Amino acid sequence: MDLGIVGKTALVCGASKGLGLGCAEALVREGVNVVIVARGAEVLQAAAAKLMAVRAASAPFVKHVAADITTAEGRAAAFAAHADYDIVVTNAGGPPPGDFRDWDREAWIKAVDANMLTPIELIKATVDGMAARGYGRIVNITSSSVKSPIDVLGLSNGARSGLTGFVAGVARTSIAAKGVTINNLLPGVFDTDRIRGMMEAAKQKTGQDIDMLRAARMKSIPAARFGTPEEFGAVCAFLCSMQAGYITGQNVLTDGGAYPGTF
C-alpha cells in the first residue's frame, strides 16, 4: 500500500533505539525525510546510519540531533534542524517504577514534564503550521497503562493519562477539519531495553531467572510473545498516512491482545 507520504518530513523523538527507532525506520522506508532526536550522541549516530541504509530513494535526508527533547533548548535544536514538520512522533523514556509513597514533588514534576508537557509543547509548536498547509500527523507514543494502569508505574500512569485527556480535546478542535490528526499509540510489552531493564529489576527483587520471567510474562499475552519495534513502527506509519486522515483523537492499543476490556 502506498501511504501517500513520500516527501513529507517527520520529527521522531527518542529515536536512537527501541520504539522510536522502529517508527523512524518505518517512515523512511515510506519515503519520509526524518529528523531523529535523542540524548545519546553515539547511539543516535548509529541509528542515523541505519536509517540512511534503509531509506527509500525518495527520502532526500536523514538528520540527527543529539539533544534532550524535554528541555526548551532541546526542542530549539530540533526546530533548528528543520522548521516545518508534517509529522511529529513524540516519545520520551518512561518514568521509573516504584512505590508512590517514595515519590516526592520533584519526581512527579519530572514525569509530567517529560511525558505530558513536552508532547504538548511539540503540538503547540507544529499544529498551526500543519493546519495552514492542510496536512499534519501527530502520534504520541504513550503506554497501554493509560487503559489498564500498572501499580508500580504510577508516575507513568498519571503523566500519560494527563496527555491522553489533553489530546482528546485538542484533536477535536478546528484543526481536524484542516487535515491534521492527533492520535496516541499505546504499546504493551515490546522487546526493548525498557522491558529488559524491568525484567532485570524483577530478577534482583525475586531471584528468579530472566528466561523464566520472560516466559511467564509472555504467557499472560494472548499473542504469546513480545512485540517488535518494527511492527510498532508500521502502525505508526499507517497513522501518519493519507489513508488515516479520518482517524483522530484515538488511543490505539498495540499489545498483543493483553488488554481484556471491550472498550
UniProtKB/TrEMBL annotation:
InterPro entries: NAD(P)-bd_dom_sf, SDR, SDR_fam. It holds the Pfam family adh_short_C2. Gene3D superfamilies: NAD(P)-binding Rossmann-like Domain. SUPFAM superfamilies: NAD(P)-binding Rossmann-fold domains. Belongs to the short-chain dehydrogenases/reductases (SDR) family. This is SDR family oxidoreductase.
